[in-house]
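Before the break, one more example. Copy the sequence into your notebook; we will annotate it together after we see the structure.
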Amino acid sequence: MKALLKSTWILLFAVTLMMMGNGLQGPLLGVRAVTEGFNSTVTGFIMSGYFAGLLFGSYIAPKLVRQVGHIRVFAAFASIASTCILTQAAFIEPVTWIFMRFLTGMCMSGLYVVVESWFNDKADNNTRGTLLAIYSTLQLTGVALGQLLLNLASPSGYDLFLLTSVLISLSLVPVALANISAPRVEQTESVGWGDLYKISPFGVIGLFLLGMVQSVLFGMSAVFASLIGLSVVAVSLFASMPFIGGILLLFPLGSLSDKLDRRKIVIVTSVGSAIFALAGFVVFENNFYTLFLVTTIYGGLSYPMYSLLIAHANDNARPEQMLSVCSGLVMIFGLGATIGPLVVGFTMDWYGYGSFFMFLAIIHTCIAIFGIYRTTKRASVEERLDYVPLPMRATPIAAKTLAKDMARQSRKLGPRRFRRRRKRKRSA
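Here is what the structure looks like once it is written out:
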């Protein structure tokens, strides 16, 4: 593992810089949109543009990497992303911002493809899960740190836009200078959504709904905090607290899911997320300190659900299906993420700012209800694969990295599953 970290630390450093820049520009644009008088519906379109770009980039980035190579794609996409945030500073106009956010999402997806395919190539069966866990933790940490950078200058000026551009541009330097051979990117397989639903109904529906709430938390938190009158310092704290909570509970909940039915863990965390979202609705106008605590716990319960649902789906898949399952679920999550900010932007305009938390509570309740329903239709998997945290907003390349590790585990469990089934048939 030490040798692997020695050969990939430069990429992990680049990821941290990249996520700091990405984490800063989300709340920066949200606060600036409120300052410029954009209504919540328009801002929802702006934030959804980013997730639509992520989804689109997941399709085109692997093709570009195969054609021109990792470093060239990373350099091109980092340069475009750096230019997009500067363009938004120069042209403060909704249509321009929507298009720039779409391009930013597309570029970030391409950057993820490059880094994740490198990790996939460098890791082996014994280190892949650990490296992916480090990568996931650094993603959350980078975003949280980036949002705290909102305090360094006024969002109404140009300084923070320049800082975002600098951070994204600097992430290019380690990759450009890294003495690492670029791997070959293989074509990711695809699976029909009907077959995917048969393999894991709860995984498909759960991740679609989860994409809606987590994109709202990432894209609209700063907008909500600005609209209710929080200071810039408070906005940055409010936006970063859920990520800090996610870092704290990512591994404990994952370890627990290796011992119990993952569906029950997801159901409990969904119910808990709904309860704390409702608590946020109750306290957001009166007690800001309690609001920060509530959002931290909410994020701690909500963010690990992404990896839990993907792990649950793969518990029910055959080894040869796992790559297709992971890639398909990433796309399902992306579709939900594109819809979430649009809905919340509209509801905040029409039903008040409290609908931000009500939306989160309703969607998490739906996840829990569907999970309870599924437990009555299918028995728990007896032999579960080891939990590995998968970074949110990941690409099919990261899904492939996880799928390799899970397929290896599944093959090891194969004979034991067979013996258990024979024993049950004899006893029956």
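Residues 421-428 have pLDDT under 50 and may be disordered. The chain has 16 helices and no strands. Try to locate both features in your own notes.
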